[in-house]
Structure formats: C-alpha cells, structure tokens
Design a protein that fits this description.
Blueprint: E1 4-7, H1 12-20, E2 24-27, H2 28-32, E3 43-46, E4 64-67, H3 73-81
Parallel strand pairs: 1-2, 1-3, 3-4
GO molecular function: isomerase activity
Pfam families: UPF0180 (PF03698)
Keywords: Isomerase
C-alpha cells in the first residue's frame, strides 16, 4: 500500500484501522504545525465538525481531504483506495 495518511485526533478508530491495514498514519494536529508538509501525505481524514480546522482551508495543497462524517473505517479505506 505505502500510502501516508494524516488523520484527525478524534478519529482514533479510523487511525487504528488504517494502521492495521498497513498505512502510514500520522495524527493531523502534528502535521498542521508544518502546513508545508501536508503535500507529503496521500490523504487527510477529518471530521465534519472541523472542516475549517486551524485554517486548513487556506492551505494550498493537492492532498485529498476525506470528510469521515457517517463513515466507517472500512468506508474511509475504500475512499483512500479510490485516490
């Protein structure tokens, strides 16, 4: 797989699931301290509550953002696979 995924801290179930599936997973709050590093990830997984988390909407990046609202960990992985 080899995909690197940044996951918001509240989504620990998704983070754990993706790690078990072999993805390299980093907690999103760590990543946001260096916004330029966002391009190092294949996807960012957020909750719908934080769509504008820490000004992420003003960051220019080509990284796909997945809103995990109402999604199971399996659903999130399927979204990642389609990238």
């Amino acid at each position: 797989m080899g995909k690197r995924i940044a996951v918001e801290s509240q989504l620990s179930n998704i983070k754990d699931y993706l790690k078990q599936k072999g993805y390299e997973v980093v907690e999103l709050k760590e990543t946001l301290s260096e916004k330029s590093d966002l391009n190092a990830y294949d996807a960012i997984v957020i909750t719908g509550q934080s769509r504008n988390m820490l000004g992420i909407d003003d960051v220019l990046t080509n990284v796909s953002v997945i809103d995990a609202t109402g999604m199971t960990p399996f659903d999130v992985e399927e979204s990642i696979k389609r990238l």
